[in-house]
Backbone:
């Protein structure tokens, strides 16, 4: 079995763990197994990676975090005031470490399998809890050092060893703060909610992290437009509520010798809060937390009542949207699958969020040039920037590739077991469900925001873009291989097929957007374009669902 450097370091301090009441040999073996399993788990930051077997994924994710850390390291080189600079550095580090802790390591923090398996055997609870804590510390230390490594190297080069030492001590405090804060948050959630709600919250954090990575990549270049600006700090009472100020204040005090009342309060808070949290965590949170982890296996009765109410609404929608009973059945089946599969949501939601955000990222260019809000709104209202919605349409339709994936894909044998003569109702019902569940809500929200900016005059444009988006969806569906819903594992969405779908989506979307743009310059051109697109949609809808089981079998 593979040995690890961390374990060899721990061997030198085995006597400490023995004094704490842990069986070190058993604890070491548990840790060894946990670290091996870490290398097989695919982190959230690599959730869209082509490498899906998990082997060496953790090391690769550290390299990605290290690359992102280069941008943090660059901030150290800029001649900004230390308090401002370190606030930015620690703000990013705290956010990244905490979201990573929640998204990727919640399985460890919330693990109840260890106790179920090991406690009936001659393994003490102290040994299990110590192994769990050391495991979390090792993981968090690796992530934090990967993110902050370039900044540490830059600080040693620019400011010297004293600055470097303070930086390392602050990182240790940040790690303690993140572990304790995360545990306390989970304890509060478990107090008021059941395990299902906690799992949902963790899933949302995973989605936020995936979206943040992409948006940060788009916006990171804009940070460095600050030139010839004098940055001043005016203390406010609420500054002490920001954790980044706690860890940035000591640098102003010890390096710049600025011993103001505000910096002293913030620095003391940075020491007192983690220390107090550690005492609270040890004395109060841990016993309560471990006791209430059993809630992860519970589902509340109120949730069942809500599910029953949702099911009634879904049945009404199925009757309205599906003329065939079999199609309506698979509409309901697909709706439930899309609602309940957390891993599938983790794949789809970032794409939906990005499709909503990207049009506004391009519109930001206008805001940067005209700082007064009235001028920005005037320029926007006289422009045709709303056509950037086509970018959202391309991203939304490319999400269709995930409709065929599921973590329960092994149950796909049911399609062949059922007496279904044609796969058309199966796929058609699933496609309608996907449009209603994911594409339509995002498009409606996006449209309402743009109507708020441009007024109702673009309502016909919004309708035309929706029709074109469904046309785009049918084009992608028509030319990609015919696949049953939820029949394959997620790893098979990677590679050439998904890239081809993306390119096809953007190519057709570009043609439709160009036609919309040029027709919009003609009198009544948008209305004429809407009629043409509507006719094309009817033709495509009728021709897209002419396939048999043989066509499905080929894929």
Residues:
């Amino acid at each position: 079995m593979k040995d690890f450097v961390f374990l060899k370091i721990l061997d030198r301090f085995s006597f400490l763990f023995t004094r704490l009441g842990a069986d070190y040999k058993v604890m070491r073996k548990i840790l060894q197994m946990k670290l091996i399993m870490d290398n097989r788990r695919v982190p959230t930051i690599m959730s869209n990676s082509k490498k899906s077997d998990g082997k060496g994924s953790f090391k690769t994710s550290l390299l990605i975090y290290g690359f992102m850390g280069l941008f943090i390291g660059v901030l150290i080189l800029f001649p900004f005031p230390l308090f401002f600079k370190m606030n930015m550095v620690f703000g990013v580090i705290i956010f990244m470490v905490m979201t990573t802790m929640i998204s990727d390591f919640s399985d460890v923090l919330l693990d109840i399998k260890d106790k179920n398996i090991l406690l009936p055997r001659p393994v003490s609870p102290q040994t299990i809890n110590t192994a769990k804590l050391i495991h979390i510390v090792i993981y968090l230390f690796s992530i934090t050092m990967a993110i902050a490594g370039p900044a540490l190297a830059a600080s040693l080069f620019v400011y010297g060893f004293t600055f470097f030492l303070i930086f390392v001590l602050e990182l240790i405090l940040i790690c303690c703060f993140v572990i304790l804060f995360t545990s306390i948050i989970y304890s509060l959630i478990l107090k008021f909610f059941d395990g299902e709600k906690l799992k949902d919250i963790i899933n949302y954090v995973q989605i936020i992290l995936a979206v943040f990575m992409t948006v940060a990549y788009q916006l990171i270049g804009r940070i460095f437009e600050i030139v010839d600006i004098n940055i001043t700090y005016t203390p406010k009472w609420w500054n002490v509520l920001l954790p980044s100020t706690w860890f940035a204040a000591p640098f102003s005090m010890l390096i710049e010798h600025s011993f103001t009342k505000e910096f002293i309060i913030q620095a003391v808070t940075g020491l007192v809060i983690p220390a107090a949290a550690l005492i609270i965590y040890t004395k109060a949170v841990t016993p309560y937390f471990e006791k209430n982890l059993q809630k992860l296996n519970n589902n509340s009765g109120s949730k069942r009542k809500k599910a029953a109410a949702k099911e009634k609404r879904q049945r009404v929608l199925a009757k309205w949207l599906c003329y065939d009973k079999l199609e309506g059945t698979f509409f309901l089946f697909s709706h439930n699958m899309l609602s309940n599969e957390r891993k599938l949501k983790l794949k789809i939601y970032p794409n939906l969020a990005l499709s909503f955000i990207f049009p506004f990222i391009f519109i930001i260019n206008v805001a940067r040039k005209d700082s007064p809000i009235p001028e920005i709104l005037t320029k926007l209202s006289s422009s045709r920037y709303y056509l950037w919605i086509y970018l959202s349409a391309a991203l939304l339709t490319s999400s269709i590739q995930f409709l065929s994936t599921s973590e329960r894909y092994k149950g796909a044998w049911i399609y062949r077991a059922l007496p279904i003569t044609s796969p058309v109702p199966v796929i058609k019902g699933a496609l309608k469900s996907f449009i209603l569940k994911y594409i339509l809500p995002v498009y409606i929200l996006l449209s309402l925001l743009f109507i708020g900016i441009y007024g109702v005059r673009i309502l016909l444009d919004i309708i035309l873009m929706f029709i074109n988006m469904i046309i785009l969806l049918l084009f992608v569906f028509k030319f990609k291989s015919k696949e049953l819903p939820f029949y394959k594992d997620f790893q098979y969405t990677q590679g050439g097929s998904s890239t081809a779908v993306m390119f096809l989506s953007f190519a057709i979307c570009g043609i439709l957007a160009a036609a919309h743009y040029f027709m919009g310059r003609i009198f009544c051109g948008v209305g004429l374009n809407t009629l043409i697109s509507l006719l094309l949609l009817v033709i495509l809808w009728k021709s897209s669902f002419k396939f048999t089981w043989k066509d499905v079998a080929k894929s």
The mean pLDDT is 78. The CA atoms of residues 314 and 332 lie 7 Å apart.
